[in-house]
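Sample log: Short chain dehydrogenase.
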Amino acid sequence: MAEDGNRIVKDITDNNQDAIFVKADVTQKSDIQAVVDSALTTYDKIDILYNGADIHDGYDNAVELEEDFYDKLMAINIKAPYLASKMVIPHLSSKVSVLLFRSQIALVVANMIVNHKKSPLLN
């Protein structure tokens, strides 16, 4: 939400800190790339990736859960953290870097990323 993003940036900058807002749909690869590009253009590096977007199915069972909502659930909770991590990891600083995953489901993605032999997090 642009209004919330701009309000948060204002709160941060009013406290003499630096912040930017980039409106993005986390299910869209091009939007995530735009966020990464904006961060790199503004700050020249990325130290932290916080994967905090997630939605919940309300404990619906397979019969109750609509396929469209299931697709949205997977796109936000699984694919988005994967895409963000894939795009950010090559740019993480070599000294101190942090990947945070808010969603329990996204921990599956985190384990896949961190346990990969070529992960820069293991260097």
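Observation: The CA atoms of residues 54 and 76 lie 6 Å apart.
Observation: The radius of gyration is 16 Å.
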